[in-house]
Structure formats: structure tokens, C-alpha cells
Amino acid sequence: MKTPLTVTVIVPMRNEEDRIGRCLDSILANDFPKDDLEVLVADGMSDDNSRSVVQSRAHSFNHLRILDNPAEIVSSGLNIGIQQSEGRVIIILGAHSEYPRHYISTCLRELRTTGADAVGGVLNTQPGADSLVARAIALMTQHPFGVGGSSFRTRSVGHEVDTLPYAAYRRTVFARVGLFNEQLTRNQDFEFNARVRAAGGRLFLSPDLEVVYYNVPTFKRLAVQAFNNGFWLAKMWTTSPVSFRMRHAVPLAFVICLLASILLVPAKNIGAFVLPSILSVYFLAASIAAVQISFRIEKSAFFPLIGLLFTHHFLYGLGTLVGLISLLRPKAVPSHIRAAAASH
């Protein structure tokens, strides 16, 4: 009888020719025994050179395989990988990241010592390009005002959390709570982790795990990412109510308050006070965050950061609002939103 492998690494991919090589090189350079490891790349039918890059690595590592993912979204790719995996531990990694040599072995050690159902680490977020805007985006998404106190981004480690990036799961978790929700193009990891916790599972954020992650490089891509993340948040809440977290709803509340106050503008006694008050409070908080961030880059980043923060929060909240409205008429969900979300 064939002895099961200890670890399966699954990497969902679509059009990642610029990143996937370095990602796989870092995985294959890990100090974990190669005979006990398999790497499955779930390809969302890439139309660039991504598959060729993966195949070039497969020549030197027999346990590296490409799996077709015709649905082209992350959740379906993960499920295909899980269903074809052999490992007793399944580690889900991203093509946009690079991993230290001890990552796999540390995941197994932390699963053993903590007794958790899943473990993960913090993101060492790097700019996606060599520009002031890219550097500002990278630091903005590590600041509590920018991301709402998400532990793996703000580096609050050594405790149980509600979600994990690039996590290592015991195989038994999937038998207990099922696979990833293929109705979601975004937020599938958070929704899955919410189900794990609802079933009594424990997620541990380790201080000994850190991943280099490359963020979006431009204002435009940040805007698209923010809107799409917010849009699919609405679908996540309705398909899995246990995934609701107040911090995700704050941008939605901000947008609703802004729109409501704009409607009140004709009522001079009320509208003339409410809208300026909301904006004043927001931009005061954004200015404090921008000062803290800009002093880590350069002072000239202050005003771009104000614009980035407002854009990120407003479009995230607007995306959630549009997502909720679209659920009233499911057939009216814009198809381009799904396509854009799958490719960013």
C-alpha cells in the first residue's frame, strides 16, 4: 500500500508569468524532504507563458503537477487541488508571494505544538513596482486605518485569529467543513475560515511564519481590487452569514452615510451640517494615518496617501453596496466584474 505524503502545496494561478517562477523556486528551495512533498499548480487556463514557467520547474521535480482549472477562479482551483491531493497536511500558497526556506517545516511544527486546525503567518508586503504610489500602497495596506486591524497585515501575532493567509490545514478540516465556496470569486479564504471556526476549529497566527507578498502597483489596480473585494463581500455574507465581521462593514456604512448626507443637502439646516461633519472626521483620521505612513516613505507621499485611503475605503464600500443591490436581481450581476476579479 502506498504511504500517503505528508504535505501537499496548492498554488492557484492565472496569468502569473512574472511571479510564478520565483514563487515555485522559493517553495522548492524549502528545507522540507522532497520525497514527502507534492506541489499542485491549479491553472485557470492562463493565456500567457505561466504554464511554460511551471513546466520548466517540473522537469527537475517529479511531484510538481499542473492541474487545469476551467472555471478560472481561485475557489474552484483550490477544490480541484484538494480533491487530487495526497498530503495529510494541505498548504495553500499564492503565486504573488515568495516563501522562506523553513516555511513548510515551520507550518508542521506549529500545527503540532499549538494543536490548531490551521496555522499561517504575517505578510511582509512589498511594493508591486518601483514607484512612490506602489510604495505608498504597500505601507497603506499594513496600517490599521487602511485595513481595519487585520492581524496578518498589521503583524499582531501569537494568538488565534478569524482568518489566515497562506495557511496550512490538517486534511481532516476539509472532511469536517467541506471545500471552498465556488460561488465566490473573491473572499473564498475568509469564508472558508469562518466555517472552520463555526465548526469549533482553531486558526493560529504564528510569529515564526512570514511571507513576502507583492501588492498591486498602481492606483487603478488598487481601485479595481477594492471595488471587487467589496462586491464579493456581499455574496459572502449572504451565502455564509457566519463570515460576517463588523470591520468589513465599516466602509459600507461610510458610503451609505455619505450618500444619505448628499441627499440631505437640499434640507439646508441638516445637509449643510451632516456632510461636512462626516468628511471632516474621515479626513482627520486619514490625515493622521497618512502622516504616520508618509514618514516611513517620504513626506511628499502625504497627499497621494490621502487619495489612496479615500479611494480604497470608498470603492470597497461602494462595491459592497452594489453587490447587495445586485443580489436582489442575480441575473443583473455585471459579468465584467467577475472577469476583472478573476484576473487581479
Number of strands: 9
What amount of the residues lies in strands? 5-15%
Per DSSP, the total helix count is: 14
Class per helix and strand makeup: alpha/beta
CATH superfamily heading of the largest domain = Spore Coat Polysaccharide Biosynthesis Protein SpsA, Chain A
Low-confidence stretches: none
Measure the end-to-end span: 43 Å
- Please compute the radius of gyration using only Cα atoms: 21 Å
CATH topology of the largest domain: Spore Coat Polysaccharide Biosynthesis Protein SpsA, Chain A
Oligomeric state, counting identical vs distinct chains: single chain
The string of secondary-structure elements, in order, is EHEHEHEEHEHHHEEHHEHHHHH
Overall mean pLDDT: 89
Number of domains: 2
Largest sheet: 9 strands, mixed
CATH C-level class of the largest domain: Alpha Beta
Q: From the 3D coordinates, which CATH architecture of the largest domain would you assign?
A: Alpha-Beta Complex
Bulk shape: globular
- How much helicity do the residues have? 40-55%
Describe it.
The chain is of the alpha/beta class. The protein has 2 domains: about 5-120 and about 150-210, Spore Coat Polysaccharide Biosynthesis Protein SpsA, Chain A (Alpha-Beta Complex), CATH 3.90.550; about 240-340, no CATH class. It is built from 14 helices and 9 strands. Strands 1, 2, 3, 4, 5, 6, 7, 8 and 9 form a 9-stranded mixed sheet that branches. Helix 12 (about 270-295) crosses helix 13. The longest helix has 27 residues, at about 270-295. The radius of gyration is 21 Å and the shape is globular. The model has no long low-confidence stretch (mean pLDDT about 90).
